Amino acid sequence: MPGTEPDRALHLTTRTTSFFIGGKRVRVIDHQQWRGWITNRETGALIRDTGNWNDVYTYEGNHVVRGVTTGAVWRFTVPGHGIVVHQTGRSVFEPGTGEWSTPFGGSPDVSGLCPYV
Questions:
Q1: Could you report the average pLDDT of every consecutive run of 10 residues in the chain (117 residues)?
Q2: What global pTM score does this model have?
């Protein structure tokens, strides 16, 4: 018998567009669409878990020199209450330095979901 932890279902769709100059890849854009549901096992209440974002990778030779993520990566919506947790914005990663420049601030605080799950 399942425990009282919420049940989760999801579907991720990715569309990739690649750009080449002189036969060499220079940029890749991944368009991400996330559709998920979290179900409270005790009450059956549903929380929508959605996201839409783009990942853009810039190449020099065969190496990614910069990655940029923009959009809504986390968005939890409770019927009748609206969006209770979200993480949107722009994040930049430069692999050579290992540094991130982001207003995302890491993972979102999901404690706003506690009253609903």
A1: 68 96 96 92 86 95 90 88 87 73 67 75
A2: 0.79
